[in-house]
Amino acid sequence: MKTVLVTGGNGQLGSCLKELSKDLLGYNFIFLDYEDLDITKKEDVELFFNSNKISYCVNCAAFTNVDKSEADKETCKKVNEDGVSFLALACKAYNVKLIHISTDFVFDGKQSFPYKEGDPSNPLGFYGQTKLNGELAVIESIKTYFIIRTSWLYSEYGNNFLKTMLRLGKERHEISVVYDQVGTPTYAKDLAEVIIKIIININENYGVYHYSNEGVASWYDFTEAIFYESNTKVDVLPIRSEAYPLPAKRPNYSVLDKEKIKNTLDISIPYWRDSLKKCLKNLIDENEL
């Protein structure tokens, strides 16, 4: 029986992994959130690894509020840098394979074609910088790692853009959404399936990978699709980013190139709109829509 530790276990991705791992034979998944294991406390991390025989650690724990990161830099750094470093060091000490989730925000968005894993990183804000520093901490600490950069995660769980738009669609007749930030919406359950495939196939092609759903969309496109597929009648107005100023800068273009992960894992990746339909159907089946 192999034990898989999932940190950030109550978040979107952790919740999807929990759902998919229920019937997985031969594996014992432990899902911990910060109340159970605070990864920013080195002694707690070391004690947990010493007390439990772990084969894989999937780190979904992160400070992900991009705007709040600019104001609360101390907490953001502790979680996205220090906590990741403590996990990586513990994984090395106890011979544990680490799967660490990172972000498209390590790039500045000035490129006009999909970002490959080796393209220069240049974060625009503090959140992206801490996530990049977390990646570097992993690379410097351990050899048996997978870093998976992803983008625009949504799911049936927690707070995310999809659920915010569905809520606003019930409250308003008109919504303004930026059209000049382009990337790819990613269904967290699709990413969770890839993570589980890495684990059960005992993949040892370590390194940095990109994963998002296929296709390209702006936030405006994504919003239009959400309302169309959920049969919600709302007027969506396209606006430029400067019309909706936020504390943290966003990359204007953050489409990820997925050829490396597709070839390495021999997988096909769903188109973002097809995955959106699946997620909305699940929400309807659960009477959440």
What tags apply to this protein structure?
single chain, alpha/beta, two-stranded parallel sheet, 41% helix
Give the CA-CA distance, first to last residue: 39 Å
Question: Which radius of gyration do the C-alpha atoms yield?
Answer: 19 Å
State the helix count: 10
Mean pLDDT: 96
Strand proportion, as a percent range, falls in 15-25%
Q: What is the makeup of the main sheet? A: 6 strands, parallel
Helix percentage: 40-55%
**What is the N-to-C order of secondary-structure elements (H for helix, E for strand)?**
EHEHEHHEHEEHEEEHEEHEHH
Net shape: globular
Class from secondary-structure proportions: alpha/beta
Number of strands: 12
Largest beta sheet: what is the strand line-up?
Answer: 2-1-3-4-5-10
Q: Indicate the low-confidence ranges by residue numbers.
A: none
Concise structural overview:
The protein has helices at residues 12-21, 42-51, 66-71, 73-93, 126-141, 161-171, 188-200, 219-229, 259-265, 272-285, and strands spanning 2-7, 27-32, 56-59, 97-103, 145-150, 153-154, 174-178, 182-183, 186-187, 207-210, 217-218, 235-239. With 289 residues, it is an alpha/beta fold.
